[in-house]
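Before a colleague's protein record goes any further, I have to sign it off. Alongside the sequence sits a line of tokens, each denoting a local backbone shape. I want your independent view on whether this chain really folds as the tokens say. Where you disagree with what is written, explain briefly why. This is what I was given:
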Amino acid sequence: MTPLRPDPAAASAAPWPEGLLEVGHVLDAWGTRGWIKVAPAAVEAAALLAAPTWWLQAPPTAQAPRRVALARRLARRHGQSVVALLEGVEQRAQAEELKGWTIHLRRQDFPPPAEGEFYWVDLIGCEVCSREGAALGRVVGLLDSGAQAVLRVQRPAGSSAADGERLIPFVDAYIVEVDLAARRVVADWQPDYD
């Protein structure tokens, strides 16, 4: 059985892949056989259901930094959450030890998005310009307004409000094109709209 509390020296030396993305956290144990209940960070939990390995990190309040990589044996949706069984977690007490741990995945383990859909993480860092080519800024994050996603765009240096952000709804009415290969988003938006 894989110990959940590795030696702190071994934990710090364990390889932690670059670019892992936090996709949720463990809410609690679920059932009596080692299952955990997970709160996904996004409404769509396809990455949690598909990734073969989950990297888990203990909360900052833990006595020593702890990180483990565990193979996902089974995972499924359970209402708004996900329940999962991880390799080496076979008893409820072991699952309870993981309460509060964050779950991280490699981007390459995410399933491909459907046509016309994008993972938020892929949009961050893209340059945004108007139809006419005017620079609007760079995507620094997204917001979920409930009705739609909204791009948080840091205004370009030298603009009248360079220290602020502009918010552009990520909907067909305003987004003309997304070219992830070129790291560019074209929006039907003007620099003076906000």
About this structure: The CA atoms of residues 2 and 14 lie 14 Å apart. Helices lie at 8-13, 46-50, 92-97, 120-123.
